[in-house]
Design goal:
The longest helix is centred in the last third of the chain and has 25 residues, at about 215-240. It is globular and about 65 Å long. The protein is mainly α. The protein has helices at about 5-25, 30-50, 60-65, 70-80, 85-105, 125-135, 140-150, 170-195, 215-240; strands at about 115-120, 150-155, 160. Helix content is about 55%, strand content about 5%. It has 4 domains: about 5-80; about 85-160; about 170-205; about 205-270.
């Protein structure tokens, strides 16, 4: 990489790190902890993604690539990942339950309107929905999660889907989990586009305008939220129709795909 690219990358890293460091400081993560995590990622990526063709990656080569000592590389490579997968499981399965409610004809009308569901006394029921789409997550636990996140509400013993998306409640653990998954996917897409030819690029676009009046922001927030939600629901329906049948052993290996939309403005949030 020539010097101009190095400088461009350095500026990009500084911009990338600012919002991340705000989150870290807000949650009491000191620089030493962040430094250790960064070293761990450097080591793991060097082992996994920078092997020479036909050769097994070595501690010595990773040490050269990363600038870390051989002793530190070995120690970091043997460290387990921090935390657990419980938050990821809860997040993904809540999304799948709502998707099933919107797309499975057992739980929605012909035009995709989610049906009101009894908990379990009659079909279609919320219990049947959860067992079909949440794996081993208990029905009551999923109901509590969706109620807390204001995705569903109960009236007279009937459960209604009132929000066609899973937006976590004020649980900081789950929101921090989303930081890891969603930002990783965006940066991975940018990385792919930096290293592939035009005909192999993945879709990565945004609209922006730096000459919008403050009085228009509320209207744009509402418009963008409505249009983005409709777009994502359309894609979600298409993906559901094209899922592999787990009962068919001869089908292809599953591939994970996603499309994300985000909103940003560079002025302080309204109090």
């Amino acid at each position: 990489m020539d010097e101009s690219n190095q400088q461009l990358l350095a500026r990009a890293i500084l911009r990338l790190l600012r919002p991340l460091v705000r989150i870290l400081l807000r949650n009491g993560v000191a620089f030493g902890t962040f430094s250790d995590l960064a070293k761990k990622v450097y080591t793991d990526v060097a082992f996994e993604d920078f092997t020479l063709e036909g050769k097994k990656q070595t501690v010595s080569r990773v040490s050269i690539l990363t600038g870390l000592t051989r002793k530190e590389v070995k120690r970091l490579h043997e460290l387990p990942e921090p935390g657990s997968l419980s938050e990821e499981k809860r997040y993904n399965r809540a999304i799948r339950v709502i998707s099933g409610w919107l797309n499975d004809t057992r739980f929605c009308s012909a035009d995709g309107v989610p049906l009101p569901l009894a908990l379990e006394d009659e079909e279609p029921s919320f219990s049947t929905l959860v067992r079909a789409y949440s794996g081993d997550v208990p029905v009551q636990a999923m109901l509590t999660e969706l109620t807390t996140s204001k995705s569903v509400e109960q009236r007279d013993g009937i459960i209604y889907l009132i929000r066609h998306a899973y937006i976590p409640s004020d649980d900081p653990v789950e929101k921090i989990h989303i930081l890891g998954t969603d930002v990783e996917e965006l940066i991975a897409t940018i990385d792919h586009n930096l290293t592939h030819q035009r005909d192999e690029l993945r879709f990565q676009r945004k609209v922006s305008n730096d000459n919008i009046s403050a009085t228009s922001l509320k209207a744009f927030r509402q418009l963008s939220t409505k249009e983005a939600q409709m777009f994502l629901e359309h894609l979600d329906s298409w993906l559901t129709e094209h899922e592999l049948d787990p009962k068919n052993e001869h089908e292809q290996t599953p591939v994970r795909v996603c499309m994300g939309v985000y909103y940003y403005e560079d002025q302080p949030e309204e109090q």
